[in-house]
Design brief:
The complex is a heterodimer of chains A (about 1050) and B (about 350). Chain A is of the alpha/beta class and about 1050 residues long. Chain A is built from 36 helices and 39 strands. In chain A, the strands form seven sheets. In chain A, strands 27, 28, 29, 30, 31, 32, 33 and 34 form an eight-stranded mixed β-sheet that branches. Chain A has a seven-stranded antiparallel β-sheet with strand order 14-13-10-11-12-15-16, sandwiched between helices. In chain A, strands 17-18-21-20-19-22 form a six-stranded mixed β-sheet, sandwiched between helices. Chain A is globular and about 75 Å long. Classes of the chains: A alpha/beta (about 1050), B alpha/beta (about 350).
Chain lengths: ~1050, ~350
């Protein structure tokens, strides 16, 4: 069937901020789909609240609305833009839910707009638990015994008929939010009541527990003619019980025979046909390890994290094809872009093995429970490709950038033998290291399998890696042994450690023996057809396929690896834009990255894609073959910056700011010298290595002080210390990982935090705008609400900031981007941090000012000047709009994590509010972040002593908005004494009714809880915050945030939102 | 032990020996299926060939004897990237290593199967030798390798005498089918049995008369190995069957032989279709099915006389003929494998169509 010509203008719904369970994969899918739609001449209207995405660029869509993703906003956009169709299957669960709500309310029908891709009825059949079960029953596809409940009592009654344990799955939530396994009635009540609250429709599925079965997924495509194919299947190494997003996953399945493979494949086709899906769909199965019995776990009638993974694992562009199908094309009409010969109506054949490992945030949330359950906790993931499983696993491990490069990286040798079984039973992110330890101690495969339910095939593969460790330790390093160690991807560094040689010796030995990495192509067809798309992965012991090209100048663009807190999608935005800019300037572009969720690893972004770990050795392999003219590291976050030195050693010039100058910004002494030369003040501070030195420094500076390691991202390990005890603790935490660089101890200043991104050509500096943080210094910039243009700075202060920026950029000889953070304290401007690279705020400031910063920076790197590109150096005129960037957190997914904001970053994503005036922009940002008040008009306030006076005004204003205020004893006293009515409430450890009862009563809109400075160890405060978050109550830990919310609420009543099409924002 | 794969163009791959250490010369082909290595090994259509698996990890789930598509493995050799040392599956009864050894099939592992596949793709299917002799002399052996032909392999793989397989279906026995065994995979008979057919399997060289005397409701021509044009005697009998009114369904070699019996022609493809991901389009409905395939020869599309037959399926990738419907006859034939095993079961409905055809023609 050819294209449906009645589709002319399509509204694409994005997925909103990055949160756990909904990450960059939707930017990848959405960007690919928008490009695919535009290629067909369709006008694309895009809405997404997330400014860090590539899909919200005016190059990707025709009209771009970075607006809150609410039904109301969407209705407004539909009325304004009058699209004929909506494509809701690209924006994850968030997008799908919005599409459904619009359809269910009759709004779409009334305005003659239709859902394309998948109908509302299909979405309902796949998403509604009961409807899904009925559908599966009708076509004879087995599901685990289950029932849908709307209250706890029914849940208990049903479970009593099928027995514990049971799995609980709330309907319409992301990443399995609020789900879990209940082993007894108490757990059932806890999880179920939480799940009912989180579900959009107050529905939870109670299901027979099939934990321990194999978890298998199929990615399926179907067109309107009923043609179906499976793109790929995947096997979770962790059996059912761990969310697939938190599992180590391998593609294709490894332990399924053809009978099992085809049985599930046929089932998946059967399901997609019955649901009538047109587009992509993900089907998850539980397969009993000792029979052919299987259960359908769930179906996602949309692109997903798994479909992004399947696309990257096979080269089959699911989102692109899904978009074409939505327009009416059938699979046999859509060309396979990789081979250019075959069509989308075929199934990829892999001749390699793919391993995905989740990136879990426990390095950021050291208090959070590491246990992996059916609720997803990972913020991102890495993927690796190799021609053997062991190698793929080893490559994936080192791609994580978590100081892990082998199965020895976590040492469990101190676990007593009698505790090993318990350790194996613990399902967390380090379990494979425990299994490796068990193998080292001679535990049998069957025993490990009995405890972990992980298939013996995988255990054997781990054993092969463990055996290699032992062999390298004890046997002479022959050519054959070295070749075998490299075949299973032992890094030179690990081989060196095991053989007591230096890394360089191993490297030279390899050269001598000719044991070099070869690159193979991902071609969708196992070499059956010639492919033209240079998408490569490395292997050892094979023939190299990567064609040497040298007709154009070649640039290596280093990506930013897995999405993690502190290094998110924004760096992918920068990498991709830089790649495009280089390409436009005539360069051949080569991207190296290992994140399957991102746009940068789409096969048609750069001229060549190397899907590889971002370590020096892996990059060297590529450099050996490609011999690039230079590399650019300033767009790939800390991941890329860390490779600078190694690249120089390999003889690869760094394009842009030189390595010495990058160093100067990070090296405290060099940096101090530069500040001195520039006559720029900074908070006093010292560099130290030990706790003793730190305490001496603190004594001299006076508490509070800021303690942090150098060379980190996202303020990792940064803390505000108010006592010697704090210092001991923080230094202890920092030194758990061996530090190559000193620790910094600085005087902590309370002031306004200001941020500037600038482009420098070595001579002139272009500053698109000055951003001001709402929260005072002390809250990490990534967790602060950021406002452009700065609202409260005097002309003079602005001039000082511009001047300091100019001086710093020049004396650091910045060529490209620089990001500077300032504190303004009593009209005095201090510099607190300088990053001579792209930053988190680059996409946002680019979009609101209309100045394409990454493109300009890239052109500067190539040799253009700011003036030469037609820009006047200095601070650019303010744009017509005010934009507020608001952080978004995923705290409710991370049991045990403290949500208290501080110098260490904790947010996972961000939204933008943009409007002509500040209040509206702020209101939109809060709305986009999901803070939609008032509801019950009741709140709790409990603040530390130093905030007690400031809180009075806040209390008064909330009271004026009709809020009933509950407060703990001393806070209540202050409020009441100052004429604000507050109900005194017992603390948690006191008798009922207390704060906990209030929170669990589901009648509280907001908790304002400011923990005392330093590492707040008050268990009470922690419990209040955790419980509030887990019950879905908003919690602010900074009065500044509360103030901002107030000003947005105070004018909310008469507000109708104005829509801003970002594509029309021009820099004046 | 070291092993070598020597191609007739002089390319040599060094790996390690698996299975038998016997030296063998054969035609080297590749299969892109990611699962189903045992079904591949026991598919009689591979007689006279050595098969390369493009998926690098083979033997992961061991050997489940009930999955065998015939009584023994047929390829002359087995070429893989890596054999799993640890088969793991609840049904696994043996390792692939033991299975190859027990059946005296030589093989080679740890070679760059992707590089090999690319050579076969670029230069076309060619002959090769698997040997463990390190002192091979290329000048001596390459002429020997080049000389190899698969020959009349159908006679090697067909059954020696006829036998009957009872059907089992809820509806009871409904049809009697004569299956001409040209190297049939078990699942053809099983698919018919499951639909209530009693299947009598006849040796390939059974005369048309004997089959007609059996008085079947339908005749099934199976898959099989080798060059269809070598099967002159069988083609002559098939021509006689064509001239009866008995419904006929043919798969793969059977499909080619029917074309040859009715004035069509076949030719050898550059490197064939072997795998489980080939899209075929049903020209009646324009629907595309993913099919299991294993063939090196194909019916010529331009030599089809439309008064005799018309294309019913074509390959979406390369446009080759994948199925024929015979004009004014109850005969339809397909190049691909609706019996799957290994591979997708999407086209199993063709067996239902055969049943229906037998019902209608009665």
């Amino acid at each position: 069937m050819p294209k449906d010509s009645s589709i002319k203008k399509v509204l694409v719904i994005g997925s909103g901020p990055i949160i756990i369970g909904q990450a960059a994969e939707f930017d990848y899918a959405g960007t690919q789909a928008c490009r695919s739609l535009k290629e067909e001449g369709v006008t694309v209207v895009l809405v997404n609240s997330n400014p860090a995405t590539i899909m919200t660029d005016k190059d990707i869509a025709d009209m771009v609305y970075i607006e809150p993703l609410t039904v109301k906003v969407l209705e407004q956009i539909i009325l304004k833009e009058k699209p004929d169709s909506i494509l809701p299957t690209l924006g994850g669960q968030a997008g799908l839910n919005l599409g459904m709500e619009l359809a269910e309310s009759g709004f779409l029908e009334k305005h003659g707009v239709r859902l394309i891709g998948t109908t509302a009825q299909t979405i309902f059949k796949a998403e509604d638990r009961q409807a899904f079960k009925d559908t599966m029953e009708k076509i004879g596809e087995p599901c685990a015994a289950s029932t849908v409940v709307h209250n706890v009592e029914d849940g208990i009654a049903f479970t009593n008929t099928i027995g514990y344990p049971v799995v609980l799955r709330p309907a319409y939530t992301l990443g399995g939010s609020g789900g879990g396994i209940a082993h007894n009635e108490q757990e059932l009540v806890d999880i179920l009541s939480n799940g009912l609250r989180l579900s959009r429709v107050g529905e939870v599925l109670v299901e027979r527990c099939i934990a321990g079965w194999k978890e298998i997924e199929y990615e399926v495509m179907r067109d309107s003619n009923g043609n179906c194919i499976t793109v790929c299947n995947m096997e979770n190494i962790d059996p059912v019980g761990v969310h697939t997003g938190d599992s180590i996953v391998v593609a294709p399945s490894q332990t399924l025979g053809d009978k099992e493979y085809q049985m599930l494949r046929s089932s998946a086709l059967n399901i997609i046909n019955e649901l009538g899906i047109t587009g992509g769909c993900n089907v998850q199965y539980a397969l009993k390890p000792d029979s052919f019995e299987y259960c359908v776990i769930e179906v996602n009638p949309r692109v997903s994290r798994s479909s992004a993974l399947a696309s990257k694992a096979t080269g089959y562009p699911i989102a692109k094809v899904a978009a074409k199908i939505a327009l009416g094309y059938t699979l046999d009409e859509i060309k396979n872009a990789i081979t250019g010969k075959t069509y989308a109506s075929f199934e990829p054949a892999l001749d390699y093995c793919v391993v995905k490992i989740p990136r879990l945030p426990f390095d950021k949330f050291i208090q959070a429970k590491r246990t992996l359950t059916t609720q997803m906790k990972a913020t991102g993931e890495v993927m690796s490709i190799c021609d053997n499983f062991e190698g793929a696993l080893m490559k994936a491990l080192r791609s994580l950038e978590q100081h892990v490069d082998s199965l020895m990286s976590y040492d469990f040798s101190d676990i007593p033998d009698d505790e090993l079984e318990d350790a194996l039973r613990r399902v967390d992110d380090r379990r494979i290291f425990v299994i490796a330890e068990a193998i080292r101690r001679g535990t049998s495969y069957d025993e490990i399998n009995r405890i972990t339910k992980i298939d013996n095939w995988f255990i054997d593969k781990l054993a092969i890696l463990v055996e290699m460790e032992e062999t390298l330790k004890t046997q002479p390093l022959t050519k054959e042994l070295l070749a075998e160690a490299k075949r299973i991807e032992f890094p030179d560094k690990v081989i060196a450690e095991l053989t007591k040689k230096s890394e360089e010796e191993i490297h030279n030995l390899r050269r001598k023996y000719g044991i070099m990495a070869a690159f193979k192509m991902v071609d969708t067809c196992a070499a059956e057809f010639a492919a033209t798309t240079p998408y490569y992965y490395s292997v050892f012991g094979s023939v190299n396929e990567a064609a040497l090209t040298n007709d154009r100048k070649k640039v290596l663009v280093l990506g930013s690896g897995p999405i993690r807190i502190g290094q998110g999608i924004e760096f992918d935005y920068c990498s991709v834009h830089s790649t495009w800019a280089f390409s436009k300037e005539g360069f051949e572009t080569i991207i190296v990255n290992n994140n399957p969720e991102t746009v940068s690893t789409d096969f048609d972004i750069a001229d060549k894609l190397y899907f590889e770990p971002l370590t020096a050795e892996d990059v060297q392999n590529i450099v050996d073959i490609e011999k690039p003219d230079g590399a650019v590291v300033q767009f790939g976050g800390q991941t890329a910056i860390k490779l600078t030195e190694s690249l120089l050693k390999m003889g690869v010039p760094i394009f842009g700011t030189s390595a010495e100058n990058v160093d100067a910004a990070e090296d405290r002494e060099l940096f101090d010298k530069i500040l001195e030369e520039c006559c720029i003040p900074r908070p006093q501070g010292h560099t130290v290595f030990t706790a003793k030195e730190a305490k001496a420094a603190a004594a001299e500076l006076g508490y509070p002080v800021l303690v942090r390691p150098s060379y980190v991202l996202g303020g990792q390990g940064m803390q505000i210390a108010i006592s010697d005890n704090d210092i001991d603790e923080f230094i202890g935490i920092i030194n758990r990982i061996a530090q190559e660089h000193p620790i910094l101890v600085d005087k902590y200043l309370v002031g306004k935090e200001i941020e500037v991104d600038a482009v420098c050509d070595g001579e002139d500096v272009l500053i698109p705008g000055i951003m001001e943080h709402i929260e005072r210094a002390g809250v990490h910039s990534g967790d602060s609400i950021s406002v452009y243009p700065a609202q409260s700075l005097s002309e003079k202060t602005q001039r000082v900031i511009v001047e300091y920026t100019r001086r710093l950029a020049k004396s650091l000889h910045v060529v490209g981007l620089i990001n500077i953070q300032f504190i303004v304290c009593d009209e005095e401007v201090y510099v607190i941090e300088v990053n001579p690279r792209s930053s988190r705020t680059v996409p946002y400031i680019s979009k609101v000012t209309g100045i394409p910063i990454v493109k300009l920076a890239t052109k500067v790197i190539i040799g253009n000047t700011i003036k030469g590109m037609g820009y006047t150096p200095g601070l650019q005129p303010k744009a017509d709009y005010i934009a507020v960037k608001m952080p978004v957190f995923s705290f409710e997914k991370l049991r045990g994590a403290d949500i208290n904001l501080g110098p260490e970053m904790k947010s996972t994503g961000e939204v933008l509010g943009i409007a002509k005036n500040f209040d509206e922009a702020l209101y939109k940002a809060f709305l986009g972040a999901g803070i939609n008040l008032p509801k019950h008009r009741q709140m709790i306030i409990t603040v530390k002593d130093s905030d007690k006076l400031d809180v009075v005004d806040i209390g008064r204003r909330f009271e004026a908005l009709g809020y009933k205020i509950y407060a703990t004893k001393s806070t209540a006293k202050v409020l009441n004494e100052n004429g604000v009515h507050a109900v005194k409430t017992n603390k948690i450890e006191q008798e009922s009714p207390n704060l906990m009862d209030l929170i669990l009563g589901h009648k509280i809109d907001l908790v304002i809880d400011t923990p005392s400075q330093g590492n707040d160890r008050s268990h009470d405060g922690f419990l209040i915050r955790r419980n509030a978050i887990e019950t879905g109550v908003n919690v602010f830990t900074s009065l500044d945030t509360a103030n901002a919310l107030l000003s947005s609420l105070e004018n909310a009543a008469e507000r109708t939102l104005t829509l801003v099409d970002i594509a029309t924002v021009k820099n004046v | 032990m070291k092993a070598f794969l020597i191609l007739e163009d002089g390319n040599v791959f060094e790996g390690i020996s698996i299975g038998s250490q016997r030296e063998v010369i054969s035609e080297i082909v590749f299969n892109t299926s990611m699962t189903g290595y045992l079904e591949v090994l026991t598919d009689p259509s591979y007689a006279g060939q050595a098969v390369t698996m493009t998926y690098p990890l083979i033997g992961n789930y061991g050997v489940c004897y009930e999955d065998m598509e015939s009584l023994k493995p047929w390829p002359d050799g087995f070429i893989v990237r890596e054999l799993s040392r640890m088969p793991s599956n609840f049904r696994s009864e043996n390792s692939i290593q033991n299975f190859l050894e027990k059946n005296d099939i030589p093989g080679i592992a740890r070679i760059d199967t992707r590089a090999l596949t690319k050579i076969l793709r670029e230069k076309g299917t060619m002959n090769g030798m698997i040997t463990t002799d390190e002192c091979y002399n290329l000048d001596e052996i390459i002429p020997k390798i080049k000389n190899y032909t698969t020959g009349k392999v159908v006679e090697k793989v067909t059954c020696s005498s006829k036998y009957t397989l009872e059907g089992q279906s809820e509806k009871g026995l409904i049809k009697k089918v004569a299956l001409i065994d040209l190297g049939a995979k078990k699942n053809i008979a099983r698919s018919l049995n499951a639909r209530g057919c009693e299947v009598t399997v006849f040796p390939a060289l059974t005369s048309a008369d004997e089959i007609i005397q059996y008085n079947p409701d339908g005749i099934m021509l199976s898959n099989g190995p080798g060059d269809p044009k070598e099967c002159t005697a069988i083609i002559a009998e098939i021509e006689k069957l064509y001239n009866t009114d008995i419904p006929i369904f043919a798969i793969c070699l059977g499909h080619q032989l029917m074309a040859l019996a009715t004035g069509g022609d076949t030719h050898k493809m550059k490197y064939g279709h072997r795998g489980g991901n080939h899209p075929v389009k049903d020209l009646r409905t324009n629907k595309v099915y993913i099919s299991s395939q294993n063939h090196g020869y194909v019916v010529d599309i331009d030599k089809i006389d439309s008064s005799v037959a018309e294309a019913s399926f074509v390959n979406v990738n390369d446009g080759t003929i994948e199925g024929l419907t015979y004009t004014n006859k109850n005969i339809f034939t397909v190049q691909f494998h609706p019996e799957a095993c290994p591979g997708p079961q999407d086209s199993a409905f063709l067996f239902d169509e055969f049943i229906k055809m037998m019902e209608v023609s009665r």
